[in-house]
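[job 0412] stage=complex_fold ligand=magnesium ion status=START
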Amino acid sequence: MQSETQRCGYVALIGRPNVGKSTLMNHLLQQKLAITSRKPQTTRHTLLGVDTQAQYQAIYVDTPGIHEPGDRQINRYMVREATAILKDVDIVVMLVEQDKWTAEDEMVASYLSNLRVPCLAAMNKVDQLADKSLLLPAMQRLGKLDLFTEIVPISALKGDGLANLRQEIFTRLPEHPHVFPPDQITDRPERYLIAEIIREKLMRRLGDEIPHRAAVVVEAFHQGDGGVDISADIYVERNGQKRIVIGKGGEKLKQIGEEARRDVEALLDQRVMLRLWVKVQSGWTNNPATLKRLGYD
Ligand code: GDP
Ligand code: MG
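[job 0412] stage=complex_fold status=DONE, emitting structure tokens
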């Protein structure tokens, strides 16, 4: 039974790398969908997260961070993906980091000036502000930019201010029937979410060099009586990287597999058997054909 008019729209979460976009999306959905890490550029594709409450449905779009593209194909792909969606959304939420405003924030803001849709600022990581009296002046500085309809202080990590942010978003959603059924929380298939979980463990377990050179593809997914049997390939660029991922006596890969398996079991809510294979595909981060085959098209 639907007594009130349904409101539904797409909400872009944008901001420079590492401001907490994926953390915010996970917390809003109360489910771990997007992978997060201390390393910039963890998120490679846009990912939809659906938040349905009563007559409201917000479809969050987690984007790769907007940054200076540099000269790698994959980086250019990520910036293109992040900026293209701004044209297709109903509300934009730009994340900034408490009282900081950097050159990268400036660049993100440059994409906002011509938008016709409401643009909210979420001032994230306020839990890191030791001196809370800095909050108000920081909000005032943001306000002076004349870009934002509303400025909401939040901590995506601790959950502070999120009810408030959600309210500001919900009330600005256009009148529109819901696009997704109420129990669906993402548009991505399970295989994709599983590959992302494995990639997150790689990023957390390995040094800075490898993760940006690695891609993960779930090759097989077999549902059995006692659980699911999953095989995934980890692509790296060089033999040396393969050795690092595998580790001494296979220790590293075992750890990564173990941690990933636990998260995948939580995601699928059943027992999981996870097999990981490391494969060398030289130059994949800079080769358009390979990028396409690995899902970056
Ligand atoms: P993204 O690149 O914008 O998607 O950023 P992530 O969501 O991956 O977060 C980057 C890092 O910031 C991670 O280590 C998060 O745990 C951390 N982080 C995100 N939100 C908060 C917050 O509200 N407070 C604190 N202290 N850390 C946060
Ligand atoms: Mg992210």
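The pocket of guanosine-5'-diphosphate (ligand 1) is lined by residues 15, 17-23, 36-38, 42-43, 65, 124-125, 127-128, 155-157 (CB under 6 Å).
[job 0412] exit 0
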